[in-house]
Every structure is written in structure tokens, then in C-alpha cells.
């Protein structure tokens, strides 16, 4: 019984030493960028890609769908 308490004390002290020896935490997040940045720089390209992806998904769904006889 005394031996178990000794092992518990050693494990607790070892864990405490490891917690103290950890490197400092990284700095907090930086400030967000200032307002006024363009959010619609390539909006037409993104719309075209979304349209093509939608057509691709619909086409694949119709091919995989069973046709009634």
C-alpha cells in the first residue's frame, strides 16, 4: 500500500515538472486586415466554376439513376 502511494507521488511530481517545463504559449491572433479589400475580385470565374460543377453533378446523378422499364 505504501509502495502504491510512493509511485503516485513520483508520477504526480514528474507530471508537474513536465507542465512547468513547457514552452511559452504562442502570441495571440493578429488584428484583422483593414476594411476595403476587394471581395469580388474573381466572382465571374467562381460563378462559372460553380455552374460547371453543378452541371457535372446533375449529369452524374442522372447517369447513375436507374431508368424505369
Order of helices and strands: HH
Strand content: under 5%
Count of helical regions: 2
Quaternary state reads single chain
Mass-distribution shape: elongated
Supply the helix-strand structural class: mainly alpha
Helix percent band: 55-70%
Poorly predicted regions are: none
Query: Any idea what the radius of gyration is?
Result: 30 Å
> Mind summarizing the main beta sheet?
none
Mean of the pLDDT scores? Answer: 76
Count of DSSP E strands? 0
Instruction: Measure the end-to-end span.
Output: 78 Å
Write a brief structural summary.
The protein is mostly helical.
Q: Can you characterise this structure?
A:
The chain is mainly α. It has helices spanning 2-20, 43-64.
